[in-house]
Amino acid sequence: MQTQGRAELQDFLEHPLQTSCNGLTLRQIGNHLKCQSASVPRVLLINRVKLLYRKAHPDLFDVLLIPTMPNQMNVFGPLSFVGLLMLSNVFMTFAWYAHLKNLSSAPWWIAVFVSWSIALLEYAFQVPANRIGYQYFSLSQLKITQEVITLGVFIPFAMFYMNEPFKTDYIWAGCCLLGAVYFIFRS
Length: 187
Known about the structure:
Elements: H1 2-14, E1 20-21, E2 24-25, H2 26-32, H3 42-56, H4 61-68, H5 72-97, H6 99-102, H7 108-133, H8 139-161, H9 168-185
Antiparallel strand pairs: 1-2
């Protein structure tokens, strides 16, 4: 029994969406827990399934402790998500607005070509960032994190690169975003 349970657990940890755990797939367990697997981060669902599995197989308690302990990815996953998203937003901000300063006298199609070239670099950081982040955060949490980072990148860009004056409206916009962060992350 214990060998079969270990094999089942190992298979589940390697392929959590396809493998059944005690006769239920991860999606079925997610629905059973009154949560949609599309809106709940994969890590949280896997941890809930581990708890259910632990109750079903108490003889494998020692095996189940190992995967639930914090590991390097639990720490560096969210950090790499934020770091890549910050890099992405720097490129995005330049792609969207730098042509207003640097290419204002050039034909619009040249500005489009240059902006799209910069945006390609933005997507090279944004896509991996969101793939990493989606393992830890819900879709709405990803979006609000991106909005906070965007404002944090845009304000220095506007002030130092575009020579715009600082406005207290930036502070009020930041406060509104903090409210949005609270409502998105509170549950």
